[in-house]
Amino acid sequence: MRPEEPRFRAPSMQQPWTGWAILLTINVVVFLLQLLIDPNSLSERMGLFGKSIVGRWLALDSGQITVLLPMQLITYQFLHGSVMHLLMNGLGLFFIGRALEPAIGRREVVGLYLISGVIGAMFQLGFAALFPAQFAGPMVGASAGVFGFMGVLARLFPHREVYLLLFFVLPLRLKLHWIFWGSLAIALVSILVAIRTETGGQVAHAAHLGGLLFGAFYVAALVRRGGLMRFLPGIPKIRFVSDKPAKGSGATRRRNWRKPRVVDAAEVAGGDFMSREVDPILDKISKQGIHSLTERERQILDKARSKM
Fold it and tell me: Domain limits at 302?
């Protein structure tokens, strides 16, 4: 038994912002500031880009590394070259971020975006050092972070189906598994074509590749170890819990690492904690008896008792 939950909710303005909404808002606000303060930074005026504030100080120029590089690894992720550039990345943050955040939590979404952007920039810098004619140049945009989101979502839920509008016209239903490998193939082929033809382009395919691969690495190596927060002292860590059942086939157990479930005590309200964590355990007790509980389930009950 537990106390009756309140019959009211806090006003929407008092609810904590989601991570993807924070990132999207920053990108939109920064773009508006570009329009007002630094219109020369837009791609339609690429001839003036080098003289703009963004081009000189905030964009990541893989052809001219300066002492501003540590700052530029972050600032370039919130800048865009055109309305269409912002629109495409904003749609990615909205749809992919909304689908991903319930699985990994708000802080992890923000951290994943930033680290994916840094890793993507490192990939672009590496290719620029080897092939400067094809990959050197200024870079802005949130696409490396968006590709990091896609890498994590596709590796966590490879068999989830999504609907796409191919060329904004043709409806297409695909599993995330195929979207991941298709995105990886497009990035690799685009990089090889650029190297082969010795021509560059306005799309940072190496950054996309870096973000996507980091997303896959995040799922394979970091999810079960507590995510990115485990590296930051003093910040509550997110505890990832596998959905693996107590008994099951070997094949089922091998697949479950792709589908971890997150429990973030710092972000989950008391009522949500009870409904998510405690109610299923109480149902299990009623069906199988208290002797069927695992050690982790007993710990959750102890924690719930302390909250009451």
Answer: 241-307
Is the separation of the CB atoms in 61 and 139 below 8 Å?
Answer: yes
Q: What is the number of domains present in the chain? A: 2
pTM: 0.73
* Among 21, 93, 95, 85, residue whose Cα is nearest residue 59: 85
Residues 209 and 281 in one domain: no
Task: Please give the torsion angle defined by the CA atoms of residues 169, 175, 177 and 181, in that order, rounded to the nearest 10 degrees.
Answer: -20
Task: Give a yes or no: residue 27 inside a domain.
Answer: yes
Residue 8 belongs to a domain: no
Contact yes or no for 177/123 (Cβ under 8 A): no
Contact 261, 242 (CB under 8 A): yes
Identify whether 276 is part of a domain: yes
Counting every residue written for the chain, the total comes to 308
Query: How far is Cα 199 from Cα 211, in angstroms, rounded to an integer?
Result: 23
Whether 237 shows a pLDDT value over 60: the answer reads no
pLDDT tens, residue by residue, 106-151: 888 999 999 999 999 999 999 999 998 888 888 999 999 999 999 9
